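Q: What would this complex look like in 3D?
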Amino acid sequence: MSDLEHDIKLMIIDVLNLEDVSPGDIDAQENLFGDSGLALDSIDALEIGVGVQKKYGIKINAEDKSTRAHFQSVRSLAEFVAAQQAAA
Amino acid sequence: MTPFVATLMTAPAGRVLFTGERDITAGQVRATAAALVPRMAGEGPLFLHTASAALFAAALLAAAVARKPLVLPAHTQASYLAEVGGSAAILIDDAAMALSDDADAALDTTADDVSLTFFTSGSTGVPKRIERRLAQLETEAQALEDVFGSQAGAVQATVSHQHIYGLIYRIVWPVMAGRPSADRAAEYWENLDGRLGPGVTLISSPAHLTRLPPAMDLAAQAPDLIFSSGQLLQTPAALACTAAFGRPVSEVLGSTETGGVAWRRQSAGDEPWTPFSVVTVLPDAEGALTVLTPYLDDGAPFAMGDRMEALEDGRFRLLGRADRMEKIDGKRVSLTRVEEALAALTEAVEASAFTLPDRKGALAAVVALTPQGRAAFDADGAFRLGRHLRAALADRLEPIERPKHWRFVDRLPTDAQGKRRLSDLRALFDAPRVPPYEVVSHEGDAAHLRMTLPATLAWFQGHFPGEPILPGISQVHMAVLLAREVLGWAPEGVDLNRVKFKDIIRPGETLDLTLTAHRETGRLAFRWQRANGGEASSGSVG
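A: Here is my prediction, written as structure tokens for the whole assembly.
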């Protein structure tokens, strides 16, 4: 799991061009969106959504109410990816 | 009655909008409006902001009945509302009303127009009020119907109706033409999966069209018409859309003041723009695009702020903007306004905001730190400080107006004339990175920095494989980059003088760097030393 979290942090850093950030700067449990934590916005969410689909080949159902919960933090995203991969 | 209102007053069972689950009829919109009319009777301006197009249409109808002007704020953050005069307003939002399930309601619709106030970012940085009338939006909708009506279908969207583009294309035009429109704009492409395809018109913008979903087969569900407006769709992105959908995007050029001015479809390259038939475009004396349109009240030519090249066939090309407004993901952003909001933060003395073409035109800021800001930088690092400032701006700026990429300096870089140059500011982002550093001392044109060189530093890559050492020229280059960041000055020349490389530097080492700017000679003196005083290199460049 921690390897996956690390990979997801790397992917976020890559797609958002956070070139001066290392994975250690991001806490797996902090909020990705909103006005705290990483304070990312909806455009960032688009980029991360595209990144997750490209990197893990997972289809995201934006209608699903739980999608927002999956994108809450690096940890929740890692759990989501792991669950999707296990189901595939 | 205006045609929009008249259409909403016809057959109550007619479908005007729809959600994922159900249709919304004209009668329901009327019943919703009827409940709203009494609440519009109070004193104070009426501010309308909804996520639901059905509730918006009902409020528009209610305003026509109540003969009240509407103000359409771009968002509802408290300090923004105060700034645009909304403190004493009656705010009508999604929470303030509910869609009626009644099949119909009687309405007294004798009014013939509704005044609408939009806000865009003015060139001075203050949100600019722009008054339009519903009748003008209807005239434009009719012009769209003339050009695109034969291909148009049920409307899906990724843009808000709080701005004029969304309001016309998602609500006014489809209602008038009798085509149903989706109640909500999709935030993400996946919201639209399975809802596109033949018979659909998609109202979108470069924010989404430059970020197509890799997992969705767009060609298999290509809408008949795809509109983009709010910002230019750069040719490579337009061609990528043409490839993905199997048909080109219909781009519309316009502004809140003028409405739609011209349109184009890029299927092979950078296509010129075709003005709508009711619009006349002319270059002014400076070559800037000037527009004459029936949508403007005073009939005077309106300057769009883009430079243009007129073609013999009546079409034209755009050559770039002439002012300090930038389009960021479709929204007009005043860089001045961003800079003022940044300068008001306790961490910042002053700031410069601009876009980075290399990063999809994202907004970036260089911030000159106060002592308090420098302390936060030293304690938390650049990344956390940037995140903190983004959050601290939330009260004054929309998300799109908040910088994504940050650099922190003690002084903004200036050239020999004391002017800020965009190329110097952008260079802070382009430049290969320097490691996080501590300012041990900084007085006037001299600074003493301390840093630990991480193995990930760009300069160690490939130099040499398995045996990384810091190249000599990188030591000089890092000194120049750090001088620009810390002293706000860097030498223009690249001549090296009395440079000595005495010892090799490996990853993980902690080094002190002494910098002295000799502005009069244009030279920068530097010295890299170890904590024990041993010199690694020294010299001057300029």
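A: To summarize the key features: The interface with chain A takes residues 20, 186-191, 193, 207-208, 211-215, 329, 359, 362, 381-384, 387, 390-391, 394, 399-400, 402, 404-405, 433, 456 of chain B (CB under 8 Å). The first helix of chain B runs from residue 3 to 8.
Q: Very helpful, thank you.
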